[in-house]
Amino acid sequence: MDLPVLPFRQFVLKIASRCDLACDHCYVYEHADQSWRGRPAFMSDDTLNVAARRIAEHAKRHRLSSVDVVLHGGEPLLVGYERLSRFAGTLTAALAGVCESRLKIHTNGVLIDARFCELFTAHGIEVGISLDGDRVANDRHRRYANGRSSYDRVINGIALLREHCPTLYSGLLCTIDITNDPITVYEALADLEPPRIDFLLPHATWDQVPPGDPAAFGEWLVQIFDRWLEDGRPMSVRMFESVLRTLGNKSSTTESLGLEPSDLVVIEADGSYEQADSLKTAYDGAPATGFDVEHHALDIVATHPGITGRQKGLDDLSEECQKCPVVATCGGGLYAHRFRTGSSFRNPSVYCADLLRLITHIQSRVRAIDHATHTLSPVDFAELASGYGGVHAIDRLDAGQQSLRRTLLAGVGGASTNLDAWRLLTLVDREARPVLDSVLAHPYVREWAVGCLKGKIDDGHLAAIAAVAAIRAGISAALRVPVRDGVLHLPSLGRLAADGAADAMVETGEGHFRAHTGDRVVTIDLGSPRAATDWWPVRRLIADGWSVALDDVDLYRDCHQWPAAERLSDEEFARWATVFAEAWALIQRDHAAYAPALAAGLSTIVPLAPHPHGSGISSTARDAFGAVAAALPEDEEAASLALLLIHEFQHVKLGAVLDIHHLYDPKDSGLYYAPWRPDPRPFEGLLQGTYAHLAVTDFWRVRRLIDQGDAGHRAAVQFARWRSLTAEAIETLAGSGALTAKGTAFVKVMRATIRRWISESVSMGAEREASEAAAAHRAAWEHAAAARESS
């Protein structure tokens, strides 16, 4: 997919190229690039007028909904009240009727007074102020040329801002010095109640490395992050929140992190266009583009190699960065910090160790945060442990699954070389987030993602997922999608025959797509029941108040214990539809306790190939939340399918609970007797089977009271057998020593459920048959175990 060069959305106007402080860590005056010396002290009105026109033209051409214009320097307040007011008015007027504009100013704060506060209010200018912490920390670097402290005047400016225009006080910017105590710095900044704090790593390159041991800056930030969490995140901290966002597969909010393409351009005081200011630390002339506002439109600047190079995401990073497990969050760090003479910017950040320390620390804390965020309430936990669980409990499970799916996708996307697909997914996430969530909720997307991260599956399917997301969101795009064994797979939508093609160019639109495979072009309207003879859509089973996908085409559906069926004929699908509707009616009528959870959480049924011996088979996959696989019961009775659905959905629920809560020690290596299996089971297998058989027992408990004659007697036998064996298995779990405290609580509720049923009466004949069947299973299991040991 050939994406156009991205438009600029952030414009930094250097309205002053001189400053009233002499900060020794300033990238403008103290680093390699000294171009400020040849520029006018202030931007002229003529230059500002042309710059405003260029910004408006660019916004109109690209139909931008909003832009940010940052008035910067040097020290921008040096331009004075009248000129600053004119500049703000000119910019606002130029963008009026074109797009929303946010005017911002970044200042050292020493000149702020009541009159400037009135000006900020009149023009709606948001104000950010540089401050490095308490007095000692700030005065290490931010001083006047004669060495005098700037601290008191900055604090006074902040006080005036908070008093006269508090809604325009946008935050504080702090450049890190590891000789300052991090908690003292944090507390000093927090006391000023900023809406946001930006912690900035001091500009450095591999030619001029930062002071301290490797990861010293990361360790400094870790201490503040932990304190910030303990304080309940009282203000936004852009670096921390960008890490948290990217770990959750959202976009970064700072150019120093993440893989998002740069959308910023600088306009200097003389009207020349430059790249990001931070490049001044690399070498003299590093940010220059050779373009200026008088002679060049912004679209021309957007084609500059330095600009486009910073829009390539993963491709623009060094080989070392591309292989890094945290690259999707780090993004290689700030572009300027990668510079080394001889290899230019094709290096990891000089702060690589620091970023790795911070990100991995936040990752470890995020796991705890995610568990806390998606933890089950005591009511939901108890409902699920009892074997049931209502809609609210299922919604909580799904919320946890959604976080997992996004984390997995971020892992695959971060390591993928398919940037076109990743960019399209990012676009859908930005424009239609609920749509992307629904696409990711397709059960076999997680199955695929887990396989990718284990190195078993390639990432080509990412493009197919992105195409589906765009189609569902109604976003027009063109994307190359791999063809597998002559088939184009679009998960949750269907599959298209594409014999002889290695890939297909898929053009997406609302409710339709066009596939180019070789010389063939096929347009598929998803609303048409007969879109094309070789297009096999995912069909749906519809019953009273419920609809699920009967997915017999997904590329990754064949992950169950039994082989998946091939495409069902129309007649086979019709039989499924009939039995499903009858089974759902039976569940609603006779087993209503399970109906709400099934309707809320079961989204997909995968038909399995019939078993050669004719026995009913069904299965779930641990990484396919929301899906159940089953062969249509041979007797095609509604009760048989109802039992399969209820039974297997227990595994779906418990798997999601285990993704949120640790119920047992994963290091437990024991094998246990399971009364429903011929082979010994690991602990999770026994826990899963026991939990499923709570529902099996309950199913037969109800059926013995409803069914008549032989069917009623059979149900009584099944009830008597499974209540006894499930109770036995629960005691095995309880006595295993493998349960955590949470697991002990879960099994305790399971025990309470089964004990209520133990006292219910069944006939002597049913009890006898149940005991005989249980004894026969145990004898066969022990014989097999002895045979295993002797071999």
Automatic annotation (TrEMBL):
Residues spanning the membrane: none
Domain Radical SAM core: 5-233
Keywords: Iron, Iron-sulfur, Metal-binding, S-adenosyl-L-methionine
NADP among keywords: no
Entry-linked Gene3D superfamilies: Aldolase class I
PANTHER family: ANAEROBIC SULFATASE-MATURATING ENZYME HOMOLOG ASLB-RELATED (PTHR43273), RADICAL SAM DOMAIN PROTEIN (PTHR43273:SF8)
Name of the protein in its database record: FxsB family cyclophane-forming radical SAM/SPASM peptide maturase
